[in-house]
Amino acid sequence: MTKCWSEGELRAYLDRELSTGDMQQVAAHLGECTACDCLCTELAGRAAHVSALMDLLPEWEGASIRLPARPVVVTVKPQQHAWVGLAVALAAGLAAAVYLMPKPAPQVAAIRPAPVTPAIAPQATPAELALVPESVDEPAPRRVRKARKAVPDREYFIALDNEPFESGVIMRVDVKPGNVQADVVFGPDGRAHAFRLVNAVQRY
Amino acid sequence: MDDVLTGVQPEEIALNPAGAGTLGDRRLAVSVEALFREHYGRIVSMLTRLTGDRAHSEEIASDVFHKLSQRPGLLESREDLTAWIYKVATNAGFDALRMNSRRRKREEAAAAEGFHIAGAPSALDDMLAEERRGRVRAVLESLKPRDAQLLLLRASGLAYRELAGTLGIEATSVGTLLARAEADFERRFRARYGEHV
């Protein structure tokens, strides 16, 4: 019978940490030595038990570590602060772009909720809409009246809801495919309240 | 993951101590840097298993390297610093475990109370899982530090050669020490909690 192996060697055998030659010799010995075979079985059961218990402990995956360029760790600011700053800057840029975006013509109209048959409110600024009561009958300037003649029907906005609003921002959007353009009226609450399609005359 | 080092406090690792700038100091800084890069993640992983708190584990690991950087004599001794680093880290981890044991008991009591209120099955599972983890940590804490390190690092998947280098022992002794550590762990676990996990 071949020589018996120590407890440590049998433990290393279970982990396949012995050399190839030793692995073969231990395997051959376990087939002929009941004592070593029992000890090896006992070690295997214990190792499995301890391993199962240790696996209960959560481990942080160290493989995903991204170390700094140097171990002198720079000040780490909370990540959310950077995102908040970026989001605020982005929102401010979008808002500025909306206000600075050139518009082809004064987009002024008065909106009644439904059905939509608004009258043009010429005194309003290009970026504002005003609900005009039905009783109000203001004379429209000649300039605006000409524009109304050029595009008789499509100047009107179609209300998307019945909620009145006093002012808003008109934003021109381009929907593909087909390059259909539309003006959308956004109210102070940020929601779209009305829209109209832009015909070929207005585009040019 | 960018937030891996969020727990690292910048003042905790100072590789440029007062008087830095000489060739010797720069060499020491390079030594610490190499050790940091090689072992920081593994130490945090081991400590996370031990404490269950990743952020705290990162703080502990950072503190270990800070201590190392403050001991130029140790760096110049040309001893194997790896074993020293893991020993200090493990001891600090067990200290943190003991300090947090009271807080954890309060949290467990609060969680149990919340479970009675909520009555959700997942809450029961979570509570039982946390209780089992607490048992394992308690038994690890009762072991010899080197045995606990051995089990923790082996559970992290280190090969015998790596274990030997990390713990400062002979590679041929790893099997024997591991078998003894497992036997001691199992005996203590059964003595405390019986046959059930």
Please sum up the structure shown.
The complex is a heterodimer of chains A (204) and B (197). Helices cover 37% and strands 11% of the residues of chain A. By secondary structure, chain A is of the alpha+beta class.
Number of strands of chain A: 4
In the sheet with the most strands of chain A, the strands line up as 1-4-3-2
Query: Into which percent range does the helicity of residues of chain B fall?
Result: over 70%
Cα-atom radius of gyration of chain A: 39 Å
Tally the helices of chain A: 6
Given helix and strand content, the structural type of chain B is mainly alpha
Write the layout of secondary structure elements.
The complex is a heterodimer of chains A (204) and B (197).
Chain A: H1 7-14, H2 20-30, H3 34-54, H4 79-100, H5 142-150, E1 158-159, E2 169-175, E3 180-186, E4 192-198, H6 200-203
Antiparallel strand pairs in A: 1-4, 2-3, 3-4
Helix pairs in contact in A: 1-3
Chain B: H1 23-51, H2 54-69, H3 72-76, H4 81-118, H5 121-142, H6 145-155, H7 160-167, H8 174-193
